[in-house]
Amino acid sequence: MQDWTNCTAMVVEDSAVQRDHMAGLLRQAGFGQVLVACDGIDALRKLDARGLPVELVLTDLDMPGMDGLELIRHLKELELACSLVVASAREGRLGEAAASMADGATRMQMLGTALKPLHFDVLQSLLAHADAQALSAGAMTAVPGSEEIEAALAQQQFLPYFEPRIEVAGGLLRGVDVHASWLHPERGLIRASRFLPTLQGSASIAPLAMSIAQQALAQLKAWHDIGLVTLTMSIRLPAELLADRRMIDRLCAIVHEHGVAHRSITWECPEAVLTSAAPLSIANLAHLSLRGFGIGVAGYRAGQTSQQQLARCPLTELRIDHVIVNEASQQPARAALLQQSIEAAHQMRIAVVAEGVEHGSDLALLRSYGCELAQGPLVAAPMPAQALVGWIKGNRRRLKELVAVEGGD
């Protein structure tokens, strides 16, 4: 009998009753940890934040927001799960799921499909097709090691992806948020959340950030040259780079070399830089501010950083974490935190960016609170540079209509 004690599974199911039932079956099978998600978007958000693939995902297919087939596609592309079991009340849909797994190479193993309601003996039969120890080892090896990352950096496999930010009031594109991405020659595109945790505290984190910044600044200059002159860019700087004045001076030199206006660029620091009151980093941020750059804080969560700590740094922009933003229109406690964060920023004359916006009702709430900018799945996913111009042309009308809707999705 398989030993799943050291393995983690996730149930993705929009019905609370079915979700609890399936989670109970997995615990009965011996899984050491069982995570739950109410739909595909919730699952991806939790798996992405975890930073480590789970050994098994047990998912329904018919779910609002993102159905199971779309979730399977993302799980394959992002390597967020080692194996998969699909359950549905409709036999035809199970065939679609099996076909989706057969379409294209994937490291994720399909253990099988089952009609709902799922029974324990059926689940056991499906799990018998897997090797728990091999899946556990696969989950660990799916996370790149530091040596592999350092080699990829030397081979220039890292590149910036750009996530559009729109004006909440009018739907106009105002800027892009830069994401570090790894274009792996065999595994395809790997998101930053999969490899950055491995680099924390290493000697490679600053060179990687510098490489991404240099590529992004060159692209911003190219966009300005073709007429997108009002486009701004936010670039995240790790604490290791912010603490090194030589790196800061090099960044300024790169901006000068590309001829990009300082006001078009916002350098973002991790929230931890403010909470730890790191004197060198804050002094270097002040230096950048004096040179005319925007200064932002990334992933802000109310309660972790006080207004006094925010005031220590010459901030022009506060990016509120998706944990607060998502479904705030449906969660009164979350809405209160969101409103509190926006009001605190505005009292200090700091503009607010809401990240991770997924629902039209949340966008309407942000507008009512006076939030300036928004980004997230509702707007667009991060994209390569060559896709942005086409995206702008194809989405102008949609974005204007989106911000004009009061509270809908």
UniProtKB/TrEMBL annotation:
Keyword Phosphoprotein found: yes
InterPro entries the record matches: CheY-like_superfamily, Cyclic-di-GMP_PDE-like, EAL_dom, EAL_sf, Sig_transdc_resp-reg_receiver
Domain Response regulatory, residue spans: 8-131
Gene Ontology MF annotations: cyclic-guanylate-specific phosphodiesterase activity
Source species, domain of life: Bacteria
Presence of the UniProt keyword Phosphoprotein in the record: yes
One Pfam family per UniProt: EAL
Keywords: Phosphoprotein
Modified residues (4-aspartylphosphate): 60
Chain ranges of the EAL domain: 142-396
SMART domains given in the database record: EAL, REC
Biological-process GO terms, alphabetical: phosphorelay signal transduction system
The protein's name: EAL domain-containing protein
Organism from which the protein derives: Pseudoduganella rivuli
Phylogenetic classification of the source organism: Bacteria, Pseudomonadati, Pseudomonadota, Betaproteobacteria, Burkholderiales
